[in-house]
Amino acid sequence: MSAPLIDPFARTIDYLRVSVTDRCDFRCTYCMSEHMTFLPKKDLLTLEELERLCTAFVRMGVRKLRITGGEPLVRRNIMSFFEGMSQHLGHGLDELTLTTNGSQLERSAADLAAVGVRRVNVSLDTLDADRFRAITRWGDLAKVRRGIAAAQAAGLRVKINAVALKGVNDGELFDLVAWAAAEDLDLTFIEVMPMGDMGDGTDGTLRLDQYWPLADLRARLAERFTLTESAHRTGGPARYFTLDETGQRLGFITPLTHNFCESCNRVRLTCTGQLFMCLGQEDMADLRAPLRAGIEDAPVEAAIRAAIARKPKGHDFDYSRQRVAGQMSRHMSHTGG
Ligand code: SAM
Ligand code: SF4
Asked: How many domains does the chain have?
């Protein structure tokens, strides 16, 4: 083991999110344009390189690894990467998990469970097949629901992440909550962030007027339920409320209206080996060069340490005054959300 990663604000960095591909089989309107240009394949780290980098992070104290994308399960041979990383479970790594759109879960769920994945986050914003198609452009809701069922059958705990979109899925709020309760799924709502393609809406892209503050969503829930703030924490940005009437716990991720930066324990690695120290800042460190410089890991570890020493205090997203300040040109599929 190397010394733990501690940033200038005394936060211990023990959570790494890794985007293993920028490619995806969906084209969610809030995430990418329909005619998205993907990175040249030659720029991508190989799975072996990704494994070497992630192993260095585990050596340096990362205890939780979340695999994301793009859509992680569309990367060829991705199971070999999961298998490789699972060797660290119980040896530094506490949890290996992923965030997926669920399109490939039906065939991958059992393999994921077999290598030690215990939980999976599935992104799903609506239970209406036509609306699902409109949001994701290419997605098939029935297939995703079969994927969720396969994950549950394999013994994986499934959490649904739903992006809150005014005028799109706000009418389904109570249906989503009831469905999650009936299917024994955890449910977290995410406030939409000003990432990637902020179109004018004419081609179905994300519009500023789709921003639905979770405070409003909670107020809507309070019309039918008594919400009690829960002390439950997962070390992430989510805050939890319990619906007293049902006992159901809901998560809320409000990056724009609630600042969670002070407890941030994470960094993000892209599929090209760029390390982003903050989702809302442009600063990043290139880890591909030290990685490809040779088989020695010391330069890689030094580059990681130098990057953590630059981790900023927080981000600058702000939707106030109907203007998007601090907007990022980077796509969510690049840094992995
Ligand atoms: N493809 C996988 C998926 O959709 O779960 C993993 C990558 S996706 C970029 C990770 C998460 O980011 C998803 O839950 C998605 O809903 C969320 N996301 C994408 N764009 C977003 C945005 N502009 N604001 C908030 N969440 C966003
Ligand atoms: Fe693909 Fe996930 Fe982005 Fe949707 S949110 S386009 S599923 S990467």
From this structure: 1
Question: pTM for the full model?
Answer: 0.92
Phi-psi category of residue 114: left, alpha or beta, with phi > 0 → left and psi -120 to 50 → alpha:
alpha
Q: Is the CB of 271 under 6 A from ligand 2?
A: no
CB within 8 Å of 26: residues ≥ 6 apart: 71, 101, 103, 136, 137, 138, 139
| pLDDT above 90 (res 20) | yes
Pocket test for ligand 1, best of 97, 163, 330 (most atoms within 8 A of CB): 163
CA 150 to chain centre: 21
Q: Is 334 in the pocket of ligand 2 (CB under 6 A)?
A: no
Q: Regarding beta strands 274-276 and 284-286, do their DSSP bridges make them parallel or antiparallel, or are they unpaired?
A: antiparallel
Ligand 2 center to 24 CA (angstroms): 6
- Convert the pLDDT of each residue in 74-93 to its tens digit: 999 999 999 999 999 999 99
10 part of a folded domain: no
102 lines ligand 1 (CB under 6 A): no
Summarised one tens digit per residue, pLDDT across range 171-230 is 999 999 999 999 999 999 999 876 655 565 555 566 678 889 999 999 999 999 999 999
Contact 316, 326 (CB under 8 A): yes
Give the structural domain span for 229: 15-335
Lowest mean pLDDT among 22-31, 226-235, 264-273: 226-235
